[in-house]
Every structure is written in structure tokens, then in C-alpha cells.
């Protein structure tokens, strides 16, 4: 291909916020004037001059410092970087921007119910719930946790927690109690905010018993607030109702407390690939700057627009969704199955609420194309963003067949690790089908080979060579930083290894090839293999197991589990028992696509399951060529997987 399949108009480039800030950088930070309208030049400068760039983002887009910083960046390496020392602010403070009568949050339910909450109501509820939290003894750095569907009350609880300097974390209410406790139970929380249930694919799920079970697994919780998310469900016995908590808070003014730039904001959990999920602690200032950059500059989000990203509280896109409120935008929350009763559902939501920026997954787009649905006009839609897995070219082509050149598709890839994007699009970058337009601003991204040499037009490990403000403050329960180091810096000293396979092309686009570690990523939701093993290997039918996730060329995701059967194995019965156990112990999202019998699960010499090597073998790699033969005393087991891969040609 010599030309991109979509290019921005001159008018779109001229009026974009990214163009405005580029001119500001020229006038105030010494950027070459030739960079105006040239994304590549701006991106290169943002990496070369991080203090000038991030300091400008904070000033131009309004970080809201109460105490001004002594500097933008102290330290030069990723591990010793200190951003904006001396500055104070509060992530929640920008809720002031929204006009009082403007809808802040619209919630639409699968059954058709719609509720709307203005900015005036949102600020009032945040202030009232913050007062309630203070009244029950919650102070700075205390933890408030949620067990909730994608609801208004969860947004209020998060912003209220942030406004008083406490720390928020949550799981979706679809997680069963042990899986939720594996995450939230690490935090010794004081307050649990729990829903009562949810509706999904036309069925009601009363989660009262699971919420009660979760509470029993978290003995530190002193107060529980029950949110009536399913009509008729009882919730947790003895809990304070949401209405009573809001009423108890009174009618205080919305006045978030200033906290240091690196004060902890929330804990997001990794997927539990090896052992319990790791809790990633992010700071108020770093997250704020990442969201200002990502939403204002990469997506051109402005006050008064409507932002809708289909997500659940289990995914970091929930955090991006609620960050749209920092701009005085209207956030649309959807509660239900995104393709029930058909894949036209989300497009109807987009049309009904006048959505300007719509975030979804490749799977939802491809399901829409395959079903041949009638897409409504979606007259206000100007941008579709897609993340969760690589976006096939066919998805872009279908969107153009529906919307013409009016609506580009920005493919984005990032991580819970920085609660933002490493690569994505912008209003001034063209779109090449099957590729991601560019590295995002401020991100010093390269692709390296095993020796640490940069690659162009070749697949390798994606690395970040310079610090970003939203990199984790730390991992929870990791006092010496050893787990943090092992997660990102153990492969290339002083350089962040993300765990993604990628290619940077000679034209500056990026192609993502999937995870290079063992994290599963099904329909945009990262899942932990450890949780699946915990469920399956308790069964008498199973001696050992190995689960793998592979992105397929048609935008799908194949997640089989390989099982070593015991003598009590019964064909048909045992497979169903595995599915039931995984759904019960973890969640329905964790249920494998297939159960495949295998003689042995290969392990390293230190006893770890060889998930990544097996994934690569299933994708066609030779076990000897990738070095896995040398790392195990079970080479015959690796050869079994190689033979299986040859027998079953995967469409990847």
C-alpha cells in the first residue's frame, strides 16, 4: 500500500486541539514551527523533551495545581523519575468544569431503561458521599472498594473517594466472591460499596449471596453500602443503603482536598497470570496528565461532547470512561451484553444519545459486519476507537462501507500498567488498515530484539525507554519494589518491557501481534490463567492443565484449555464439569472455548508452566528455535504440542 485508506481533512487538522497545543509549544517551548500539523515531528519532540512536553500539557490543558511544582521532572531514568515535585492537586477537581444542567452521566440498561444525571447532581452526590466516608472514619490513603456493575453510583463512589485522598479499587459484580477477594482482599479496605445484582443477556443475576460471601472474605471492612442495582435483590444484610449514605452526608460543597502529585488514586489489578493478581498503584497527577493527553490530544474530546466506551468495571477502560468527565463531556454507561439481542445494540445506543466518540472492540465491529445489520445514522459520531486486541483491516473496511470517510477508526493499544495508550491515532494522523497510526505523544516506544537492538519492519519486544507520568507508583504489597522490577525491568536493564509483540513500520505505524507473556485477553478483558487453574485443578478429573489465548486473523480469540486427565475422567461429563467449575470459581468470561486432552503439561526446570512457549509453538514456532527445549526436562511434551499445532492449522 502506498497511500493510507483514510486521511484527515485540512479543516480537521486546523481545528484540532493537538494543532492548537502544537502552536502553543512553538510559541512557548521552542518547538520547530514545521511541527504544526506534522504528528511525527511533534511526537519525536515530545519524547526528546519530556519536561517541556508534559509541563506544557499541564499548563495548556489545565492540571489545576494548587501548589506549583518546583520542577517538571527530576531524575532521568524510568525508575528514578519524579514528576512535578512539590505540586498539589486533586484528580476529582476538574468535575467543576461541567455545566450544572448538562448531563454528566447517562446510564442505559440492557432492558431499555435509561437514567440521566446532571453535573450539578453528580457534584452534589460526590460531595455527599465524601462526607459520609469521612463520617465513618475514612481518611487519606484508606481504601474504599466496589463490587459493582457499570453504574452511576460506582462513578460517584470513585470520585468521592478520590476527593478526600482515599484510595479506590473495584471489581465487576460478575466476579464470584473468591476471585473478587483475591483482588480486593489484599487492600484491607474500610468500606465496601456493593451492588445487589445485574441483568445480562436477558437474565437476572441476584448477587446478594456473593456480596455477603465477599464481605466474609474481607474482615477489614467496617462499613458496607448497598446499591440497589437489581430490583428485588436483598443485598448484604445490615448494610447501609446508598440512599441513606447520601442523605447522611448532607449537602456539603464540592471541594476536593489537594494532595501531592504522586498521592495514590486507585489500585488496578493485573490478571493473575502467576499467583494472585498484582495491584498497580497509580497517582492523582500522573493519571490526570495521561487522560488530558489521551482524550484531548489523541481523541480531540471537548466540553459538551458525548463519550461512550463499552466496558465493565473489570477493565481499565472503565477508568478511561469516567475520565471523560474531566472535560465536561457526557459519559454514557451501558449495562448489559454488547451484542444482545444482536450486534446492532451498541450502534443504537450511539445513535440514541448523540455519541461523538465511541469506543468498542474488534469483536463487536466484526460481529456487526458478519450479521449484516442495519446501522442507524449515528449523525453525531465522529470517531470510533477500538482496543482489546489487534484490529483487522476488515473492521476498518466495514466501518467505511457504513459511514464513508466521515468516521475514522483509531486502533489503540495500551495497558492497565499506565492506564492509557502506548500507540493509537490522532485527529491529524492517517489510518492504514490493519495498523495502528502512531506512537502516542510522550511515549518513547521502540521494538527490540533479544539483544536489545531496535528493529524496524520486524517483529520484536515492545519497550519503553523513557519515563511516563502515569507509570505505576508501586505495586501493592511490594515494599522493596522487587515485583515491580521483575514485571517490567528484568529483561532489559533500565528499560520497560511491556510484554507485547509488535512491529514499528518504516512509515511510523505500529502493528500489534499479541501478548508475549501469558496474559489472556478475551474480548478486551484481561483474564488470569491462575484463576482458571485454581478452579480446574481442584477437580478429581484433572491432574494438570494449561490455558492459552491466541488472537486469530478474523478478529476472534481462541482460548483452549489443555488438560491431563485422571483415571476418573468421563468424556462429556468431565468437560462440562470443567466449564461449570471455571464459571463458578472465577467468572463466565474465564470459561475456555475448548477442552483438549494432552498427555503432559510442559514445565520449566523451576516448575513453571510453559504458557508462553506453548503459545508460540501453537503459532508455528519450532521448540528448539525458541529455546524452550533447553529450559525443560520434558522435551517430548513440547513435541506433542508441535504435532498438535501441525495437525490443527490455526487461522492466525
Key structural traits:
652 residues; alpha/beta; five-stranded parallel β-sheet; 19 helices; 35 strands; 22% strand; globular
Molecular structure report:
The protein is of the alpha/beta class. It is 30% helix and 22% strand. α16 (529-536) packs across α17. The radius of gyration is 24 Å and the shape is globular.
- Give the strand order of the largest sheet, numbering strands 1, 2, ... along the chain: 5-4-17-16-18-19-20
User: Which range does the strand content fall in?
Assistant: 15-25%
Give the distance, in angstroms, between the N- and C-terminal Cα atoms: 21 Å
- SS element count, helices: 19
Helix content: 25-40%
Count of beta strands:
35
Cα-based radius of gyration, to the nearest Å: 24 Å
The profile of the biggest β sheet is: 7 strands, mixed
Shape: globular
What class, by secondary structure content? alpha/beta
Low-confidence runs of at least 5 consecutive residues: none
- Mean pLDDT, to the nearest integer, reads 92
Amino acid at each position: 500500500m502506498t497511500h493510507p485508506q483514510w486521511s484527515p481533512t485540512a479543516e480537521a487538522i486546523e481545528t484540532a486541539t493537538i494543532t492548537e497545543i502544537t502552536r502553543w509549544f512553538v510559541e512557548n517551548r521552542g518547538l520547530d514551527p514545521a511541527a504544526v500539523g506534522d504528528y511525527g515531528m511533534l511526537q519525536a519532540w515530545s519524547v526528546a523533551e519530556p519536561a517541556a512536553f508534559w509541563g506544557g500539557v499541564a499548563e495548556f490543558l489545565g492540571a489545576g495545581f494548587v501548589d506549583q511544582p518546583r520542577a517538571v521532572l527530576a531524575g532521568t531514568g524510568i525508575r528514578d523519575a519524579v514528576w512535578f515535585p512539590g505540586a498539589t492537586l486533586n484528580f476529582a477537581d476538574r468535575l467543576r468544569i461541567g455545566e450544572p444542567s448538562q448531563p454528566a452521566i447517562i446510564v442505559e440498561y440492557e432492558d431499555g431503561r435509561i437514567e440521566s444525571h446532571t453535573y450539578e447532581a453528580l457534584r452534589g452526590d460526590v460531595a455527599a458521599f465524601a462526607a459520609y466516608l469521612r463520617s465513618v472514619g475514612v481518611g487519606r490513603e484508606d481504601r474504599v472498594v466496589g463490587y459493582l456493575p457499570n453504574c452511576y453510583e460506582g462513578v460517584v463512589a470513585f470520585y468521592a473517594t478520590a476527593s478526600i485522598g482515599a484510595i479506590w479499587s473495584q471489581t465487576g459484580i460478575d466476579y464470584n466472591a473468591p476471585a473478587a477477594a483475591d483482588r480486593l482482599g489484599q487492600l484491607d479496605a474500610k468500606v465496601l460499596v456493593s451492588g445487589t445484582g445485574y441483568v445480562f443477556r436477558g437474565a437476572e443475576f441476584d448477587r446478594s449471596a456473593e456480596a455477603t460471601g465477599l464481605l466474609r472474605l474481607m474482615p477489614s471492612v467496617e462499613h458496607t453500602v448497598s446499591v440497589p442495582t437489581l430490583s428485588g435483590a436483598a443485598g448484604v444484610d445490615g448494610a447501609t443503603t446508598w440512599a441513606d449514605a447520601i442523605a447522611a452526608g448532607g449537602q456539603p460543597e464540592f471541594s476536593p482536598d489537594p494532595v501531592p502529585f504522586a498521592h495514590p488514586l486507585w489500585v488496578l489489578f493485573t490478571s493473575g497470570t502467576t499467583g494472585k493478581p498484582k495491584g498497580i498503584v497509580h497517582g492523582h497527577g500522573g493519571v490526570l496528565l495521561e487522560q488530558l493527553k489521551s482524550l484531548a490530544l489523541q481523541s480531540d474530546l471537548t466540553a459538551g461532547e458525548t463519550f461512550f466506551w463499552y466496558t465493565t468495571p473489570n477493565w481499565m477502560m472503565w477508568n478511561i470512561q469516567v475520565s471523560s468527565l474531566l472535560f465536561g463531556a457526557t459519559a454514557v454507561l451501558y449495562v448489559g451484553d454488547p451484542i444482545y439481542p444482536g450486534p446492532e445494540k451498541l450502534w443504537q445506543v450511539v445513535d440514541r444519545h448523540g455519541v461523538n466518540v465511541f469506543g468498542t472492540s474488534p469483536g463487536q465491529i466484526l460481529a456487526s459486519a458478519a450479521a449484516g445489520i442495519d446501522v442507524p445514522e449515528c449523525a453525531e459520531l465522529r470517531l470510533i476507537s477500538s482496543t482489546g486486541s489487534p484490529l483487522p483491516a476488515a473492521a476498518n473496511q466495514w466501518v467505511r462501507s457504513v459511514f464513508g470517510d466521515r468516521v475514522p477508526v483509531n486502533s489503540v493499544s495500551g495497558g492497565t500498567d499506565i492506564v492509557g495508550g502506548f500507540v493509537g491515532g490522532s485527529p491529524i494522523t492517517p489510518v492504514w488498515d490493519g495498523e495502528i497510526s502512531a506512537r502516542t505523544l510522550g511515549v518513547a516506544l521502540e521494538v527490540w530484539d533479544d539483544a536489545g537492538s531496535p528493529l524496524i519492519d520486524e517483529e520484536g519486544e515492545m519497550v519503553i525507554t523513557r519515563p511516563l507520568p502515569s507509570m505505576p507508583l508501586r505495586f501493592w504489597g511490594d515494599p522493596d519494589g522487587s515485583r515491580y522490577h521483575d514485571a517490567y525491568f528484568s529483561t532489559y536493564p533500565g528499560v520497560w518491557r511491556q510484554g507485547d509483540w509488535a512491529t514499528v513500520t518504516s512509515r511510523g505505524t505500529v502493528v500489534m501481534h499479541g501478548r508475549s507473556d501469558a496474559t489472556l485477553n478475551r474480548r478486551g478483558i484481561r483474564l488470569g490463567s491462575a484463576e482458571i487453574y485454581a478452579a480446574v485443578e481442584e477437580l478429581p478429573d484433572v491432574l494438570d492443565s494449561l490455558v492459552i489465548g491466541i488472537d486469530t486473523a478474523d478478529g476472534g480469540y481462541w482460548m483452549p484449555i489443555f488438560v491431563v486427565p485422571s483415571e476418573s475422567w468421563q468424556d462429556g461429563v468431565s468437560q462440562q464439569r470443567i466449564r461449570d467449575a471455571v464459571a463458578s470459581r472465577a467468572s463466565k468470561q474465564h470459561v475456555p472455548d475448548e477442552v483438549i486432552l494432552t498427555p503432559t503439561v510442559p514445565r520449566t526446570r523451576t516448575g513453571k508452566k510453559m504458557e508462553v512457549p506453548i503459545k508460540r509453538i501453537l503459532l508455528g514456532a519450532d521448540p528448539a528455535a525458541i529455546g524452550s527445549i533447553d529450559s525443560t526436562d520434558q522435551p517430548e511434551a513440547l513435541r506433542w504440542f508441535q504435532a498438535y499445532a501441525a495437525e490443527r492449522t490455526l487461522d492466525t
